[in-house]
Amino acid sequence: MPKNSKLKSILIIGSGPIVIGQACEFDYSGTQALRSLREDGIETVLINSNPATIMTDPSMADHVYLLPLTTKSLVKILKEHPQIDAVLPTMGGQTALNLCIEADEKGIWEDFGVEIIGVDIDAINITEDREKFRELMLKIGVPMAPQATATSYLKGKEIAQEFGFPLVIRASFTLGGAGASIVYKEEDFDELLTRGLEISPIHEVMIDKALMGWKEYELELLRDANDNVVIICTIENMDPMGIHTGDSITVAPAMTLSDKTFQRMRDMAINMMRSIGDFAGGCNVQFAVSPDENEDIIAIEINPRVSRSSALASKASGYPIAKIAAKLAIGYHLDELQNQITKSTSALFEPTLDYVIVKIPRWNFDKFEGSDRTLGLQMKSVGEVMGIGRSFQEALHKATQSLEIKRNGLGADGKGYTNYDQIIDKLTHASWDRVFVIYDAIQMGIPLSRIHEITKIDMWFLKQYEELYKLEQEISTFKIDTLQKDLLLEAKQKGYGDRQIAHMLGCLESEVYTKREELGINRVYKLVDTCAAEFKAKTPYYYSTFENDVELANGERYADNESVVSDKKKIIVLGSGPNRIGQGIEFDYCCVHGVLAAAECGYETIMINCNPETVSTDFDTADKLYFEPVFWEHIYDIIKHEKPEGVIVQLGGQTALKLAEKLDRYGIKIIGTTYESLDLAEDRGSFSKLLKENNIPYPEFDIAETAEQALAVSDTLDFPILVRPSYVLGGQGMKIVINKKELEEHVVDLLRSIPGNKLLLDHYLDGAIEAEADAICDGENVYIIGIMEHIEPCGIHSGDSNATLPPFNLGNLVMQQIKDHTKKIALALNTVGLINIQFAIKDDVVYIIEANPRASRTVPFIAKAYGEPYVNYATKVMLGDKKVTDFDFKPMLKGYAIKQPVFSFDKFHNVNKKLGPEMKSTGESILFIDDLKDDEFYNLYARRKMYLSK
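Structure tokens predicted for Carbamoyl-phosphate synthase large subunit (950 residues):
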């Protein structure tokens, strides 16, 4: 059956600001769904309050509403668009589903004659209400752990008495495992039960008998209206039950699952999906499997929507789950749709992976002072990375190299733990860095049986680690000139980086690289083709690996490289890697726009990134996608292979920027602002000299490289002093200190974590107003795209401030200084592209805090507020295709737009929630107000000084 011809206009609900538990995977799925519906000529109306995402770009939907996700906003939209036929709520995570249910309960969909597609309300209610779900599973013969529901404290106590400990408490209708906990001891039960009941919007918890040590699996399913069901991907959690899947290291396809058990699990999943409702769309099902020979299967839960895992499964398999799910929701059948990768077979197929995927979460505990860093049922990670390799070991290494936590991979970098008690503690209380600690434990000689006994991680995974360590030991007995080719090739095939191999051999990374070149050990690129090369793939989506040479009949030897280089002029865009606090989805927005703009200028576009949640790693965003770590060795090999005109670094946040020095050193052209200018702005001392030469005021400052120097500087600068390291993002390590003791402690602490850093000590302008400006410069002309005033005082990181566009309280004199300083600095830095400058205003004098000649967090916000594609313009300027004067700028904004930060403190109890110069927000929303009399503005302004911490 082709699509439902009655559906002409569809409302899509987005997921709102990014919080821990709901990140940019829904930006990716929402964007795919919007594109998918527009292909079919359907009018799309989007509601989402997040300005940082590609999804809310005017080019994505016919009508974009940047409004709070409330039923009041829905009514407003439905009144303005009476033509809306249906709502698709499955692309915006739990937030969208919850809003859809609330609107249904209030009769809003019925009042406006809007049909719900992609899911049905009964399915949501059954899967969210754990008691109903349990009854249904028992009815269809799917086993579940002993469970009971409690809607009161007393009932919870009775259940605990009956089941005994350990227990799992899960709150109903929550996101990212909020309110969930494992209770080992009776004395902890009361507090955790109360917390679960409070967090659940319906004050209900499900109490399960804990299946500690059982293995955990996820299946991603799609079903059409004809009841065809396909299983797109099987994902195995390396971490056993007891750690939220969002915080687990996951592997696809499943590595330790017997085929017999997989077939049983598959049948169960299909049965579960069919039993919860008669809808066409996507589903994520989670199972626990006993770690013995019986391999008993128990259902954990089913989510009738696209999920975090379906973004991962899409990137892992090359099957665009959200795109196809949107087509199924409007009536298509799977056999009528095209396989997007081969373009010659149908979508009614199950992908085959001839490679391995490893996903590792990215945490940001350093931003949550005093937080419990142990992993458990409540998700705590802020992002994730994915590695693709020909083996588990290669993929694991690639994923660890992608994390950007100053590690070069597993082991062989001198940064492992060497204290026995510390290692045992980190294994026992699942730590965020356990993926590295397992290697350290093996290195220390702790037997695999002991590691397995503590962690319950399957022995197969531990043996893979052991093999890696044995290889490291063997290589360490050689020197660079005595190492044989087969051993070096094996190390590369297992994912070891040149830096790690250099560490083992006691030589330089460049020497290992040269030796590889001499021996002909070169990376080859393989296609992610969904069907293990059974059919020819048309999609240029690649990962790298190392292969043994094949010898032809004529004696010629070669390794097969599937990435064919064209003779077109090319541009590489470096992505921003994993999401983290200080570098979020806004840089993905910038990268996607950069790719699209470069394509408009006639370039072949190449994207390099390793974040599975994003639109930039969608296989149809750039002409070629390399799903690789944003790690020097990988990037250099791609550049040598593709020979681009140049590389764009200023759109990928600090991740891409940090590679500018290496690119410059190797003679690779940086598109736009040069490395010298980028470095000048980052080096706090040199930048202040530039300001001095241009007669631009800045707070009194000095530089220190030791605690002793810092104390000497404090004698000439007045306290309070703002301490700032160089080359960091999101205010990392910044702090306001008010005496010598605090200064010494903080400097010692900083230099321990960032050795050799140049610290800038500023006199902190107490009580100053903070403002910032973003501009586009072509080296001769400067256009200021937006000036924002922060509601909070100077001293709270700009990412944590409510930023108002245009300013609400700056006089003409101050505004003129801001404009003059911005133009002067942009030109003095020889900026070509974007620049962001931050100001402190005191007694009508505008001081410069810092300048960043790159895309900033606020650029997408300004673009959405004014309705102008500024990143597109800036990219064309960087490429030399246009001058600033070639654009006809027409910003449109009635009233004011406020960028409002959103925090995820609720995931961490007993954490310091005070705000200061180090950024702590995980996302943002946009608020439009007509004038300053608006109640919301008044409330924000009244609270502006509440959180400032010195």
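The mean pLDDT is 91.
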